[in-house]
Amino acid sequence: MQRTLAGTPVHPIGLGCMNMSWAYGTPPGEEENIKLLNQALDEGYNHLDTANIYGKGKNEELLGKAVMHRRKEFFLASKTGIIVDGPKRGIDCSPEAMTQSIEDSLKRLQTDHIDLFYMHRFDPKVPIADSVGALKDAIDAGKIGAYGVSEWNSDHIREAHGVHPMAAVQTEYSIWTRNVELGVLETTKELGISLVAFSPVSRGAVCGMMTDPAKLDENDLRRNHPRFNEENWPKNLALVEQFVALAKEANVTPAQLALQWVISRGDHLHAIPGTTNMQHMKDNFHALDNPVGDDVLTRAGALINQQTVSGHRYPEVMRGTIDTEDFV
């Protein structure tokens, strides 16, 4: 099974590489990560997704060291725009910043070409035509193959696409995060743009393995997310337990059911679950091998959705950086 991404046929399930270096607690050691990445390619993964912010460049460096000797085997995506450098913290999608960022990413990745390069967030300080123009220059120079955006709203996607055709929009989309259904899902379908879902298994919540978020590592980002706090998690856990039972009934893992649900939302959908667990990596890649019935997907969607889940998907401090349409 293949779907097109930036003109390239890839498997609909790609590998999100973020948590090998950052975000969900203490990451594994380098040797373990290198082993997992190469095993993923052996398994059949051919879409790897990273970003310059993941571990402040360490994730790109990891991919450079681990798999660039197998560069022809996979489609490579990275991102720029989020700045975490002390007082410069914020978003910068100026032409100058992005042009330099591409050079820096190529160096860290040890390659001369990134297949898909995203603006990681919308920068209201920079005219869209200027940002897209810089990326078009990089495309013309052969440094990137295509461009995309992450967490942009429908109007801004249309405006950018009008400047130069956009290949992909990457946005959080899962059974418990439905913001793209407010506009981005239909906009991307209409314009022929791929929609790449990050956190498609709800940041691990629906997998049935997390019972108490308070036991997560102190540096795990989810500890600050409202859906995992003391008020909301018990209510969400009750939904998850029913979801896990439904997956068992359908003879798939909860993560596989979650991935099948996302991929079923349109033929332009891709999903990039991340994991540092070898078995989970394999299970995710084979999520579509044992299709569940439409009735199961419908029951899953009725069980967990924007109306039944408790808490916002992001803490207040992060919501200001998100351009995607939001629920009131």
Q: What is this entry, summarized?
A:
By secondary structure, this protein is an alpha/beta fold. It has helices at residues 30-43, 58-67, 95-109, 128-140, 154-163, 184-191, 233-249, 254-263, 278-285, 294-303, 316-319; strands at 3-5, 8-10, 15-16, 47-49, 75-80, 82-83, 90-91, 116-119, 147-150, 168-172, 194-198, 269-271.
Task: State the main characteristics.
alpha/beta, 11 helices, single chain, TIM Barrel, two-stranded antiparallel sheet, 328 residues, eight-stranded parallel β-sheet
Question: How are the SSEs ordered, and which strands pair?
Answer:
Layout: E1 3-5, E2 8-10, E3 15-16, H1 30-43, E4 47-49, H2 58-67, E5 75-80, E6 82-83, E7 90-91, H3 95-109, E8 116-119, H4 128-140, E9 147-150, H5 154-163, E10 168-172, H6 184-191, E11 194-198, H7 233-249, H8 254-263, E12 269-271, H9 278-285, H10 294-303, H11 316-319
Parallel strand pairs: 3-4, 4-5, 5-8, 8-9, 9-10, 10-11, 11-12
Antiparallel strand pairs: 1-2, 6-7
Helix pairs in contact: 1-2, 1-9, 2-3, 3-4, 4-5, 5-6, 7-10
General description of the model:
The protein has helices spanning 30-43, 58-67, 95-109, 128-140, 154-163, 184-191, 233-249, 254-263, 278-285, 294-303, 316-319; strands at 3-5, 8-10, 15-16, 47-49, 75-80, 82-83, 90-91, 116-119, 147-150, 168-172, 194-198, 269-271. The chain is built from eleven helices and twelve strands. The chain starts with a strand and ends in a 9-residue tail after the last helix. With 328 residues, the chain is of the alpha/beta class. The strands form three sheets. The chain has an eight-stranded parallel beta sheet with strand order 3-4-5-8-9-10-11-12. Strands 1-2 form a two-stranded antiparallel sheet. A two-stranded antiparallel ribbon has the order 6-7. α4 (128-140) links the parallel β8 and β9. The radius of gyration is 19 Å and the shape is globular. α3 (95-109) packs parallel to α4 (128-140), α4 (128-140) packs across α5 (154-163) and α5 (154-163) runs parallel beside α6 (184-191). It has a single domain (3-204, 256-290), classed as TIM Barrel (Alpha-Beta Barrel), CATH 3.20.20.
